[in-house]
Backbone:
């Protein structure tokens, strides 16, 4: 069952009605921003997500190094 939605955009002071694609083709081809606002929003969201992923990986890398240090210390000091 196709889902259709109506997108209202302001063009030159009047509202123009644009229909979104009703088929599932956009799911196959992927999402692509069409307006400058959508592109700026996508860029900002991707930057935030990249920052979160890099932060999580950096913390994991630090904790992994601490864990290796502790295991090495225990292995060399136990009798």
Residues:
């Amino acid at each position: 069952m196709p889902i259709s939605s109506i997108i209202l955009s302001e063009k030159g002071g009047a509202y123009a009605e644009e229909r979104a694609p009703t088929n599932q083709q956009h799911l196959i081809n992927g999402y692509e921003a069409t307006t400058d606002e959508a592109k700026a929003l996508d860029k900002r969201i991707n930057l935030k997500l990249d920052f979160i992923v890099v932060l999580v990986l950096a913390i994991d890398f630090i904790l992994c190094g601490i864990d290796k240090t502790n295991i090495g210390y225990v292995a060399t000091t136990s009798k």
Residues 34 and 40 are 11 Å apart (CA to CA). The longest helix spans residues 36-77. The chain is about 60% helix and 15% strand. Confidence is low (pLDDT under 50) at residues 1-10.
